[in-house]
Structures are given as C-alpha cells and as structure tokens.
Amino acid sequence: MVFVVTFNNFQKNKMKKIFLLLSVSSFMAATIFISCQSSGRKVADAENNVQDTKNDVAVAKQDLTKTIQDSINTEHQEFKTNSEVKLSANEKSIAEFKTRISYTKKAAKAHYEEELTVLVDKNADLENKLQDYKEDGMGKWDSFKNKFNHDIDSLGENFKEFTKKYRKVI
User: Is the distance from CB of 170 to CB of 112 less than 8 angstroms?
Assistant: First the structure.
C-alpha cells in the first residue's frame, strides 16, 4: 500500500506540475500573441506616420515661403517709402536751387543750370529705377537695395557739394 500511496502522490504532483506548466505556457503564449501586431499592420502604421510627417513638412514649407514673401514685401515697401522721402527732399532742394539761380547773372546762371540739370537727371533716374523694380527674390533685392542706397547717397553728396560750391554765389 505504501507503494500505491507513493505512486498516487507522485502522479498527483506530476499532474500539478504539468497543469501549472501548461497554464503558464498558455498565459505567456496568449500575452505574446495579443501584444504583437502583424508586420503588415506595422508597415501600414509606419506609412501613415510618414505621410502625416510629409504633409506637416509641406504645410511648414508653405508657411515659411509665405512668411518670407511677406517679409520681403514689407521690407521692400519700407525701403521704397524711405527712398521716396529722400528723392522728394532732393526735388525740394532742386526747386530751391532753381529759385536762387534765377536771381544770378546770366553768365553764371547757364553754368549753374547745367550742373543742376545733371543732378535733376540723376534724381529722376533713381526715381525710375525705384518705380520699375520688380521683386525677383532676396538675392536680387539685396543687390538692388545696396546699389540704390549707394547711388542715392552719392547723389546726396553731390547735392551737398553743389550747395557748398555755389553757396556764396547763390
């Protein structure tokens, strides 16, 4: 009987171990199966993420382009306004010089008017350049702005020299 009891205990323990092992294995298999996605689903999710990112980049590029264009337009408008003020001041100076020259002697008057005509032509040329400029991008804009500023500053210096030169006479 001892042998039968021991054999029964041995079978019960063995059955418990097998049942426990099967339960744990089944639980682990179910967990792994539930938590894993198929590779096809992973690829589809990744493609959706890539497409969403591409859309976000496209929107960001459009926003950046619009912001840059607005900035260029604003800068261009400010520059144009400031330049028009300078050119208008030059025109006022020209009108004053013409008035003063009208009171000078005829011999000197022709010489003054000749030099003043050169300044008037340069001023008109700058006005035309400013009005005719078409926005072609930041690089061309910077080049135009630098050259125009140099030209208008040069014209301003010419007006000062003309004034100093003929201040005593005019």
Answer: yes
Q: Which helix (H) or strand (E) holds 144?
A: helix 138-166
CB count within 10 Å of CB 156 equals 14
Residue 134 tokens, joined: 């078409």
- Residue-by-residue pLDDT tens, the chain, 170 positions: 444 445 556 566 777 777 777 787 877 777 776 666 566 777 777 788 888 888 888 888 888 888 877 777 788 888 889 989 988 988 888 888 888 877 777 777 888 888 889 989 999 999 998 888 877 666 787 888 899 999 999 988 888 888 887 766 55
All structural domains of the chain with their residue ranges:
1-36, 68-170
Radius of gyration of the chain (CA): 44
Q: Residue 69 has which token pair? A: 């264009």
Q: At 141, list the tokens.
A: 């804009």
Task: Give Cβ neighbours of residue 113 (< 8 Å, ≥ 6 apart).
Answer: 98, 101
How far, in Å, CA of 39 to CA of 45, rounded?
10
| pTM exceeding 0.90 | no
Give dist(CA 6, CA 60) in Å, integer.
78
